[in-house]
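Dear support,

I submitted the protein below through the web form. The confirmation email said the job was done, but the results page showed an empty box. After a refresh the structure appeared. I'm attaching both so you can tell me whether what I see now is the final result or a partial one.
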Amino acid sequence: MTTPQEPTALDLPMVDPLPPETQTYFDICQDKLGMVPNVLRAYAFNIDKLNAFTAMYNDLMLGQSNLSKLDREMIAVVVSSINKCFYCLVAHGAAVRQLSGNPQLGEMLVMNYRVAPLEDRQRAMLDFAAKMTRASAEIDDADRAGLRAVGFEDRDIWDIANVAGFFNMTNRVASATAMVPNPEYHGQFR
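What the results page shows now:
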């Protein structure tokens, strides 16, 4: 006797048709990435929510910062590793592989960033993001001083905290809704 297959993810229908600006954004994703990330499709049931999500993501991950794009993706992977977020580990692990040109680094960060050969600055940044993920209320002046000691300024600490905070939120949403990464991510930049 077989039982019916239960749905494994939320399946909210996308707005149809998509507003022209949203369709253009999805077209750009398709052209640049070869896909529209499933996270964008998931949010497309409500264009205001999609726009809020993409505005925050684009500001934190692509906006002006002293953190490099690789730094920000490394934070995303370390936070996602602690939270065991399948979606973000796959998607942002691919980004680390691409930006670093080092597939092994991407895998190390996914599994255990402490085994990766990192510069002191990167290690301090990731230690801070990890502590923030595990016990944010325990962050204190000594943690911020540790970042300053390796060259981070207060604005950089703000950016580290915001990227880590964003991925703590998105990890929880992705896991709670059983969001699945696009299959294309798995083979990229290996």
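Response: this is the final, complete result; the empty box was a page-load delay. Confidence is low (pLDDT under 50) at residues 1-7.
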